[in-house]
Amino acid sequence: MKKLLFVFLFLNCYIYAQDSARTLNDSAVDIYKETPSKAIEILQRALKIAELNKNNLEIGRSKNYQALVYNDLGEYEKALALSKEALSISNDSILMASSYNNIGRCNRQLGNYQVALENYLKALTIYEVKNNLNEKARVINNIGMVYSYLGVPEKAIEYHLKAKSVFEELNDRKGISEVYNNIAIIYANDGDLEKALSHFKHSLAIEKNLNDKKGIAESANNVGAVYYYMQKIDSALVYFNTSVDIERRIGNYAGVGASYNNIAQVLIESDRVADSKIYIDSAYYYANQSKTAVDIETALLNYSQYYEAKKDTKSALRFFKDYSVFKDSTLNIETTSKIAQLEIEFETEKKEKEILTQRADIAEKELSLSKKNYYILGLLALALILSLLGYLLYSQQKLKNRQLKKENQLKDALVKIETQSRLQNQRLRISRDLHDNIGAQLTFIISSLDNLKYGFKLPEKLNDKLKNISEFTTTTIYELRDTIWAMNKSEISFEDLQTRISNFIDKANIASHNIAFNFNVKDDIIKNKQFTSVIGMNVYRIIQEALNNAIKYAEASVISVNIYDAESKLNIVVEDNGKGFNLNLVSLGNGLNNIKKRAQDIGASVTINSELKKGTKIHLSI
């Protein structure tokens, strides 16, 4: 009896220890946003209990939860090491997915965007298999942040909105707040400050309601940044100081560094240069302590602007070069291309798994059908042997035909997928070559011109000439991006084309102060029109060329672009009220000849009408 009692008590103590480690881990997660240091203390106690009982799952959870806290505190390398340890300890799929997600977050903050995306996709694959919607949405939201850092806002917003729809379905207010915050950053970068401020304040209200100290600090910092861009300096400083106070209290020194950077920028811009130096020094110190790539980059740029304001051009140029080198090391064309390739590989692998699953289902159904047929034939064997043989042959042939038909369908689907994949790879290779060679060379030209302007005191005429060359080169890069945009699409929708035209007109409107622009699309036009990439790009170039000619030569006060459907054709009319010209007396220049050549290449018709003092009208019909 004594021996049995001892075993029973030992077993109960063991179970209690397991539950104790699990309870401590869960309680630490509940409080880490409020008091991170207390959460670390509880997690270390849980780790000791789990190690004592050799419970690998709870050991891994303790380490991974510690990584989560250290990540939010800006200690990214410590967090990265702990998540890697957790990944190697247990093969529990949920723990592995959480570890991959944490590793992705750490690498994203350290500027290793390719590694970040690789780990996010691993986590996403596991959560999809487990149908864990909440964590799946968080990973999707994190992938959107990678694209935001890489300067691909359309892709970033696409991922953020996917995550938002899931969070709303689950009523996850913290997730919704994070999405609003991330989308607001994109709006701010694009210059839409009113939308950015509205989204940031929405996020701040949710964080206050949740009483999430770190979330409140981050949202307050973001609201301050928008007020700074809106030139509301006093409001910006109030929110920045609120953020610093909270970040310092919870021990998040990465957040402290980001807020100090913002305060320094505000002081420089408001001619309080002398006061800004101490904030830049502190921001640079905390950013290097946490190794936050974005904050190190911002601090170096602040140093350059500080010394430029102090008329110390030598120091300003030195820090600007350090900023450029550091930025190029974390964000480059090769990394962007690899990340795009990773996404394609992930989607391809996902489709292949779906095809394999469909094959398995088909085979299982066919096997079940075959067994039923044989069972029926067996019951009839004694009575109708001759009929049975005929029916058996008929059934087998019918089954074989069905199998052949389905196999042919699968083969056709696989061939189609492989063809599409090869075409996409070819497009990516060509666009990557354009980016790597021409894009890099043009960027080098701009950088070299900027270094000349910063590094040497040049005559005014030469400085203007360099500025014109830089602007021309920048325009060339934009046109190269337009070409790559078209190449990366197998089809271009009418909405894509409409958005591209609208953006070009907006830029022209800003640059041309004496010209009013009108852009009209008839309501009855078919919105779901699709063009091939070649046709879509040529249509866009024709409109662009027509507008440029009108701006440069027409001396017009009004330029209009009208799009409508008529006689089963898409009609695009670009007209102005300028000085016009006599078609019979003037030879067509390269611009108008290019318009005719492009229209001919895509099988469209174009007419050009112009009269002196009555303007010019170009009509394209597709």
From TrEMBL:
Transmembrane segments: 374-394
A Pfam family recorded for this sequence: HisKA_3
Alphabetically ordered keywords of this record: Coiled coil, Cytoplasm, Kinase, Membrane, Repeat, TPR repeat, Transferase, Transmembrane, Transmembrane helix
Compartments, record wording: Cytoplasm
Protein name stated in the entry: Histidine kinase/DNA gyrase B/HSP90-like ATPase
UniProt lineage: Bacteria, Pseudomonadati, Bacteroidota, Flavobacteriia, Flavobacteriales
Species per Swiss-Prot/TrEMBL record: Ichthyenterobacterium magnum
Cited SMART domains: TPR
Chief place of localization: cytoplasm
Signal peptide bounds: none
